[in-house]
Each structure stands twice: as C-alpha cells, then as structure tokens.
Design brief:
By secondary structure, the chain is α/β, with parallel strands linked by helices. The chain has helices at about 15-20, 30-40, 55-65, 85-95, 115-120, 130-140, 155-160, 165-175, 190-200, 230-240, 255-265, 280-295, 305, 330-335, 355-365, 385-400, 410-425; strands at about 45, 75-80, 105, 125-130, 150-155, 180-185, 205, 220-225, 250, 275, 300-305, 315-320, 345-350, 370. It folds into two domains: about 5-205, P-loop containing nucleotide triphosphate hydrolases (Rossmann fold); about 220-380 and about 390-405 and about 420-425, Rossmann fold (3-Layer(aba) Sandwich), CATH 3.40.50. Helix content is about 45%, strand content about 15%. The protein has a seven-stranded parallel beta sheet with strand order 3-4-2-5-6-1-7, sandwiched between helices. A seven-stranded parallel beta sheet has the order 10-11-9-12-13-8-14, sandwiched between helices. The chain is globular, with a radius of gyration of 24 Å.
Length: about 425
C-alpha cells in the first residue's frame, strides 16, 4: 500500500485506501500529532488554521472509532459555524469514508428541513450541522442524541464571533456526558478559552504553530497605495499576469466595497469574476464557490464573512484589497492560499489610513510583511478630498487609541473656532 506515511496510525484498510485515493502521501504535522492522541481517546484542543490538514486529522480517528453503520441514532456530531463549512466537512467525510458503509448527513439552515428530516429518520452514524439547525431539529424531537460518543467543534473562534455560545451551551446540556470532545480553532481568543474550559476534559493541547501565525508556505508582501483608484489600477495591473495569477481571491472589508470592486473588474474585462458576500443568497454563494473551485472562474471577490469555510486548493494569490480590521481575519484570508503542500502568495494593499492596522497584524503574526515598491507602470492618481478626509479621520482615531491624551487634528480645529464665536457674540 502506497499510503506508507499513514500506515503508522491505527487505521483500517478502508480508511488507508481512502487516504490513498485522496492523494495524501505524508501526514501533515497536525495529523502526525493528533491522530494517535484522538485514537487513544483524549479530548483535544487543536489550534490550527485551515490549510494544515486539520480536518483529516480529526476525521480519520473519528471514522475509525465509529467504524461501521450501526443502529439509527448518530454516534458522532460535528458542529461548524456556517453552511459552507458544514458542506465542506461533509465532502471530506464522504471522501474518507468512501470504502466504508458509514452513513453521514449534513444539516443546516436556509433550506427547508424536509429532506434533512428524511435523512435523519433513515438512520445515520455521523451528523454534521450548524448549531442552530441542530437545536431546531433536536427541539422538534427528530434527532436522537443518546448514542453520541464524539463531539467535534470546528472553527470554534468563528462560532464565538458569530454569537453561537448560547446554542453550544444548550447542546452540551442535552447530549450524553460520557463522550470524547475535540475542539479546533484557528485562533485562541478568551472566548474560545472559556469554551474549552467548560467543555473539554483534561484536554491535550495540539498547537501547530503559535496562535495566529500564517502558513509557512505563503509568501507575504504589501504595497502602500495612496487611494482606492490607484488600488484598482494596481489590481488591474497584477491581474494581467494570467499565468501566475491563475486563481485569485480578492478580499475587501464590506459588501459595498465587494460590489464596487466587482463592477470595476468586470468593466476592465478581467474574464469571468464572481463576488460573494452575505447579501447574496446561499445558492448563489455556493454556485460561485463551485465555479471558482472548478477553475471556471479565475477571480473571486469576497468579504471576510462570506469567505468562512471556503476550501479551495491551489489558490495562487490572496489579495487583500483592504486591510482587515479584525486582525485575525488576516490569518484566515492568507490561509486560503498555500494550503497543505501548495505554495501561495498573499499581497496586501494599504493606504496611509490602513498602515496602522497592518503594523498590528505584523505584531499578531510575529512576522514582518515585506514592503514592495509600486510597479513603475502604475499611474498614481491624486486622492479625492472625501477620501483624504476619511483617511485623516482614520489616522486621528488611531493616534487617539494609542494616546488617550492626543487631541487630534479635528479636535484642535474645533477648539480654535469656539473662542472666535464667543468673541463675536460679545
Ligand atoms: P484543512 O486544513 O483540513 O482545511 O485541509 C487543507 C487541504 O489539505 C484540504 O484540501 C485537504 O484535502 C488537504 N490535505 C489534508 N491532509 C493532507 C495530506 N496529508 N497531504 C496532502 N494534502 C492534504
């Protein structure tokens, strides 16, 4: 058998065959460390970003434990924050359990529950769900929990960000106490720490790299660009190189920026482009993602929220058209490229108002992001008055954040005006 790297684990031949079919030859570091621990029954607190192979790291021992179809009630529950993530996990379960008779089912909101109900009634071994839909169907008495022996919480930091703590607490109350718990999170904010203390029993911490580091296979650099228009020009320029920029995700902060940029790019005829953000319907988002995955679309414009759960391999470039203000999002964005054994590039555009945030990100990831000069072909346009004002305001806010005594350019102006007005009224 060719899956030599994986034969060191206690996996059966059905799973080893699936690993071989998937083309995984060597276990990734998190797989080497987690698979034996999970197989031995430990609770795990896994700190690993997407792209490290963490999904197979918990799925392989989980599938080994559940082993074959039995009864009708699920024996493993995997919770993830979004429909996209649940779907993606489901695909990985399908792939790795292809040579077994295990029955798995993915359930999530946004669609009628009819087929999901039928699926549950038919009998399942592994249930994958968003917290909300699980509780919904549990409350209706559809899901039996008595046989659950393994619980996985994936992307726990995102679950906390999205306000799922109450639902998770409620789920923990209703499922059997005697079970194995696996918690995975890309970052380790206080909220996840609290959750892990409530929920894990003597966990073994598996930390792939210090919290919030970006994959080593990613080259990261940045351009300082004075304004939006010049950013568009630079993006347009980079995208001309269709050979190396062959699969690109462009990140922006807001839905509005996503739509704007999409318009600019389609006008510049960059080939087919898709845009995803939370105002787009679930199906549109999934269709866009699939088209991008299948290389039918070269460029995907996305917000951070919409990008949760994107699993596309071989992304050549992540372009941060805007610097994220939630600094951990930088790690998530960059994690979309350089996944597993592939190398990737992450390029950040920042205007003077965003320089501060980029410095904070460097601190978080403990890595200096190299600064590149703008290519000489890029024509730098003057910044519009409104944009300059917005940049100045952002810089003022940052200075005030760093130094509470700082009065700020805007503040000073106001102070000057007040005495003048007073004089007038005298
Ligand atoms: P994950 O971190 O679980 O999101 O996995 C990232 C990507 O790496 C997925 O596309 C997996 O299919 C792939 N992958 C997982 N394990 C391996 C491995 N041992 N060798 C190569 N690719 C892998």
């Amino acid at each position: 058998m060719n899956s030599s790297g994986f034969s060191q684990f206690k996996l059966n031949k059905q799973l080893l065959q699936a690993v071989e079919d998937a083309g995984y030859r060597t276990p990734t570091p998190i797989q080497r460390r987690s698979i034996p621990l999970i197989s031995a029954g430990h609770d795990i607190l896994g700190i690993a970003q997407t792209g490290t192979g963490k999904t197979a790291a918990f799925l392989l021992p989980l599938l080994m434990k559940v082993k074959y179809a039995e009864g009708t009630a699920p024996r493993a529950l995997i919770l993830a924050p979004t429909r996209e993530l649940v779907t993606q996990l489901y695909q990985e379960v399908q792939k790795l359990s292809a040579h077994t008779d295990l029955r798995s089912l993915a359930i999530y909101g946004g669609v009628g529950p009819k087929s999901q109900l039928e699926g549950i009634e038919a009998g399942i071994d592994i249930l994958l769900s968003t917290p909300g839909r699980f509780l919904d169907l549990y409350t209706r008495g559809v899901i039996q929990v008595k046989a659950l022996r393994t619980l996985v919480l994936d992307e726990a930091d995102k679950m906390m960000d999205m306000g799922f703590m109450p639902q998770i607490r409620r789920i923990l109350e209703v499922i059997p106490l005697k079970r194995q718990n696996l918690l995975f999170s890309a970052t380790m904010p206080q909220s996840v720490l609290t959750l892990s203390e409530e929920f894990l029993e003597f966990p073994v911490k598996v930390e792939m790299s210090p919290s919030a580091t970006t994959a080593q296979t990613v080259t990261q650099f940045a351009y300082e660009v004075p304004n939006f228009k010049t950013k568009v020009r630079l993006l347009h320029h980079l995208l001309q190189d269709t050979a190396s920029f062959n699969k690109v995700i462009v990140f922006v902060r807001t839905k509005k920026a996503a739509d704007n940029l999409y318009k600019f790019l389609t006008r510049a005829a960059e080939g087919e482009i898709r845009v995803i953000h939370s105002n787009k319907g679930q199906n549109t988002r999934l269709n866009s993602l699939n088209a991008f995955k299948l290389n039918q679309v070269r460029i995907l414009v996305s917000t951070d929220v919409a990008a949760r759960g994107i699993d596309v391999t071989m992304v050549s470039h992540v372009i941060n058209f805007e610097v994220p203000l939630v600094y951990e999002d930088y790690v998530h964005r960059v994690g979309r490229t350089g996944r597993a054994e592939n190398v990737g590039t992450a390029i950040t555009f920042f205007d003077p108002g965003e320089a501060y945030h980029l410095r904070k990100i460097e601190k978080l990831i403990k890595h200096r992001i190299e600064l590149h000069d703008l290519p000489p072909q890029i024509e730098v346009t003057a910044t519009s008055f409104e944009e300059q004002q917005a940049i100045n305001r952002a810089i003022d806010k940052q200075r005030r954040r760093e130094d509470p005594n700082y009065q700020g350019a805007f503040h000073r102006k106001k102070q000057k005006k007040t005495p003048q007005r007073k004089r007038k009224s005298k």
